[in-house]
Amino acid sequence: MSAIQTYVRKTAPRGRHTEQVGPFLATYSPGTAHPMLNYAIPDDGAKPTTAEIDALTEAFRQRGLLPRLEYFTDVAPDLENLLVGAGYVLERRVALMTCVPARFADRPAPGGYAIREPESDDDYRGMRAAQNQAYGEPAGEVTGQDLEKAKKSKAAGVVSALVEHLATGEVVGGGVALEIVDGTTEVAGIGVLDSHRRRGLAGALTAFLTRDAFAKGAQSAFLTPGDGEIQRIYARVGYQPAGECVHISLS
Fold first, then answer.
1. What contacts 15, CB < 8 A, 6 or more positions away?
2. Does 94 map to a domain?
3. Are residues 128 and 71 in the same domain?
4. Shared domain check, 229 and 140
5. Is pTM, for the whole model, over 0.85?
6. Do 123 and 75 share a domain, yes or no?
7. H helices of 159-239, where?
8. Phi, psi of 68, rounded to the nearest 5 degrees
């Protein structure tokens, strides 16, 4: 678990500003106050003092951001109680699932669909819009800055994959595998439009990204599914429960 938390600690700063506040790495995403993009990660074994928790809270408040943390409970088992004692409230517990090459089970795209890497700006726009809608957010406009960021991410080793509906050419889903660090990668952002769900597309997307990562030398992949139904989809690709991630914040 410590290795996975170290991976997150190394990759979270990509595209973000960071600041060490006591035993916390605070990360801030320029241009957005979205809580899922601005959060702190504790050091392994963190047992912060009240003053250190207050300093972290103030660091987020000064930037007009929600004080918030995301971390794997096994690496800092005492932290949740300390944060709750300081007024923080648990948002949710998210399962952690991992996969290794020996457990991987490939899942091909169902008939009528293709899964591939984006090849054009329009591909990236379609993928981002589909992911946003799949997560209940507005499709939004993908700006030139967003496209440039996507290209920089690709150059850094991030792999994107989209689902194309062959009959219409519509992009109906997408996901990413982050850069491989010390043999580990994270699969994230798997989303499929409601109108195309329950056809095996989420599993096929996950398999595409996981297969590609293993082919490039990754020895483990992990993800954090949102609910039990999604966990079952990932289990069919070879992912197994390995712990939990806590999201906790102070309103």
1. 29, 30, 149, 152, 153
2. no
3. no
4. yes
5. yes
6. no
7. 201-215, 228-235
8. -155, 145
